[in-house]
Design brief:
It is built from eleven helices and five strands. It is an alpha/beta fold and 260 residues long. It has three domains: 55 residues, no CATH class; 141 residues, Nucleotidyltransferase, domain 5 (2-Layer Sandwich), CATH 3.30.420.10; 43 residues, no CATH class. The chain has a five-stranded mixed β-sheet with strand order 3-2-1-4-5, with helices on both faces. α2 packs antiparallel against α3 and α5 packs across α9. The longest helix has 27 residues. The relative contact order is 0.14.
Length: 260
Amino acid sequence: MPAPRTVAECTRMLAEASGRPLARLISELASDERSGVRDAVARARRRLAAERAETRRLDALHALQRRLHAEGCACVAGVDEVGRGALAGPVTAAAVVLSTDVRILGLDDSKRLRREVRERVASEVSDLAVAWAVAHVPAHIIDAIGIAPATRLAMSLALERLPLRPDHVMTDGLPAGLPYPETAVVGGDATVAAIAAASVVAKVARDRLMEELARHYGPWNLEVNRGYGTPEHLAALRISGVSPVHRRSFAPCGVQPTLF
């Protein structure tokens, strides 16, 4: 007869297990009277409940796409943008096609995620998506055509760069007027998997581009403010004027001198 497991062994096994194996282990150890095991089982039950809640949330994120598939849409893409309100840098859009079988832990609106989680989710999207693409529309084009057309252009370019053509597009907020059949969802970047994935991919791609631009345009600390109008960024504009990547059609950039 094998020796009974020690408290340390039980604690380790519970900590390392997840899903159905964790549920079986909890059931197996539920009658153990040792206080260390009882505490470990209680922690494991809370973790299992959280895992199950996350699974239900992720399943719900695919509800709209499953409905569109049932209505005959074979290829459905989510698209979202970031940088619309910035004073510098591009407006960036991403388009993502996800299988409804894909579950990416933590997938959510990019604004709700810590940077390290965002980057991990973006990496998983790039690995697990059926297809994805990114497009940047720079400041001088935003100045030439306006931010709303530039945002629509970024979305259209991201969709065009997909290696397959969607027959339906899901967007966040109001309809974007894209050249595809479109379903707009208010709060879609938090409630629709492919839109959330697009929001994360776009945010990570734009952040990395802003870090690269910051190497060339140091006085504005673009790697910190990402081009948005923080108090520090506004102070830098008053001192250094605007750079080639600032949007002169956005106040106060249009009234600042240029450094270049």
